[in-house]
Each structure stands twice: as structure tokens, then as C-alpha cells.
Amino acid sequence: MLNAAIVGIGAWGQTLVNAVQGKSDKIRFVAGSTRRRERAEDYAAQAGFRLHDSYEQVLADPAVQAVVLATPHLDHEAQMIAAARAGKHVFVEKPFTLDAASARRAIAAIDKAGVTVALGHNRRFHPNMAELRARIRDGRLGIIQHIEATMTGPSGLFMPPEHWRADPAQSPVGGMAPVGIHMLDGMIDLNGTVADVICQTTHRAATSGVADTTGILLRFDNGATGYLSALISTASSYRMCVYGSKGIAEIRTMGLDEFTFHAVPPAPGEPAPTPERILRPGFDTPAAELEAFADAVAGRAPYPITPDQMIHGAAAYEAIIASARDRSVVAVRR
User: Do 231 and 261 share a domain, yes or no?
Assistant: First the structure.
């Protein structure tokens, strides 16, 4: 059993705790800290972990083997480095960092300390993503030509201007940090590294005035193209669609519950096969990612997001940020 501390006990921090606390035989939360302790005292008592006054106290706690960081994005690098130096394993929520240099510094400290690092892209763990990944890897989709990914939500309609997520320094390019980064990671997972990007982003409806509508064109190193959109001032939706020479595979719904595959007709003039549809409702992706982290710490299985992918994801995000300034084509740093 991995004894972890939750750092950052807002809505998502609580979601992570609730996913495994008292339910998992691999990981449990024994401690935590947050910027405003008084807001978390009742929750910590209910969840059954002790609350520290600071991150430094968490790192000094000998009972804590790992930290789970659900904290503002600009804090991630320093917090990961401090955890590594304290000998704690690290699970960090997305985005890993906001640029490649920062990501490399964090990974270097983690490697030097010999601790495990995991990144919170929970959607990678859904069985329908595994289905899509397998069909790409084994050739059932043929040559991958294009990927389209869209994720949307209403957070921008309710976010006050003083919220840290409304700070462009913390969340550059509008919806990329809260939702779009998941789609970017999915594309990297399914189709490999990104060569260059071109981004346009604008404000349409968010009450705080933040950019809430973003569209990005991507070119991958393998020659395929991609389109990513992220919106935070509309209803919630999720779509990941891969176009291959043998068919089209698509995942829909916020829970990633619905997988469909439309095969290319077997010959000219013949009807296309009946579309294949797989429903897998109710899968708990936060629990799956945290248990995968525990498995990696214990040496049972490597964490599926590699350090190289963590760095590349940060580099691709950095290129998107740069492109958004003037809609230019920006190469992803290597």
C-alpha cells in the first residue's frame, strides 16, 4: 500500500482522494495540505487523513511516501523538485509544466533522486482509449491520416476573475490547460510526436474575460495531420476521432463511454460493413491512474506516460502558446 499526501484540496484534489480512499488496496491518502487550511479541515477529517500547515511539513512527514500535486500549474516544477529531493514519489496533475525547459529540470531532479513520476492524464486509462490505441498499433485502422479532438466544458461561464485559473500566466491559451491538454496528450499517445502547430484563440463568453475558444492545427512527425479544439464556455463534450486508410474510429461522451468504428468498404461499389459500437460506461479513470502510479512505485508495471512524453507534451504546449500570439506556425522544441 502506497501512503500518499494530497497537495491542493480543491474540487479536483477531492476527486482524486475520493476515487481511491477506502476503496483501493494499492494507494491511500494519509496526509494533505492546501493553501487555505480552514477550507479543508472538515473534508480531511471526513476522508481520514491528517492535514499539515504547509507543503514543507508534508515533505518532512516520514509516513508520506508520495505526493499527489493538484496545484496551480506554475508551482509544479518547484514542487516536483522539492519532492524528489525529499525522496518522495511524485504524481502531478496536468499540465506537467508550461514549457520544455521547466519539464526537463523537473525530470532531471526526479531521475537524480531515483523516485517515480506520474502525470495525471486520466483519460489515457479508459478501456476505450486502450481499444483505440490497440487498433492503431496492430494496423486495423491502416495508415493514420488525421486526428480530430475536441473537449469542451462550462467552467469559463462561472469562473470569477480572481480565480487562479483565470490568470493567463497560469492557464495560457484559454482552455488548453483545463481541457485541451488532455486531447494533446491523447494525440501524442496515439500518433507520436508533434512537429509543429498553428493556433488561434479568442474570448467569446467567459465572464472573466479569459480566452475561452481555441483551435489548433497540428502536423505530426509521421506525416499525419491533426486538429484540436478546446472550449470552456459551453456545454461539456468529448470527441477523439482517428481517420485511417481502413476506417474511422471515434470515442465520444465525457466519460469516454462510446466507441465506434466505421470500416472502409471491402471493394469499390460494395456496401460498408455495419458500424461497430462498443459501450463501456462507468469506468473510474482517476482511480485507474492513481493505482497505475502505485504499481509503478512498487515496480509492478511502468507508468504508461513516459518522461519523454511528459517533456514533449510540455514542449508542444509551449509551441501552442507561442503560436497563439500571432497565429504563426511554430516548431515544437526537441
Answer: yes
**pLDDT value of position 168:** 87
pLDDT over threshold 90, residue 76: yes
322 and 248 co-located in one domain: yes
CATH number at residue 324: 3.30.360.10
Asked if the structure places residue 305 within a domain, the reply is no
* Cell 498499433 belongs to residue: 137
Q: Which residue has the cell 489548433?
A: 216
Interior/surface letters 82-115, b for 16+ CB within 10 angstroms, e for the rest: bbbebebbbbbbbbbbbbbebbbebbebbeebeb
Query: Are the C-beta atoms of 174 and 141 separated by less than 8 Å?
Result: no
Residues 143 and 206 both lie in one domain: yes
- pTM value is 0.96
Half-sphere exposure at residue 136, Cβ-oriented, CA atoms within 13 angstroms = 24
CA-nearest of 133, 176, 125, 97 to 19 is: 125
Question: What cell does 79 get?
Answer: 514542487
CB 119 within 8 A of CB 305: yes
Residue 94 contacts residue 185 (beta carbons within 8 Å): yes
The predicted-structure confidence for 309-331, as pLDDT tens digits, reads as follows 999 999 999 999 999 999 999 99
In a domain, 69, yes or no: yes
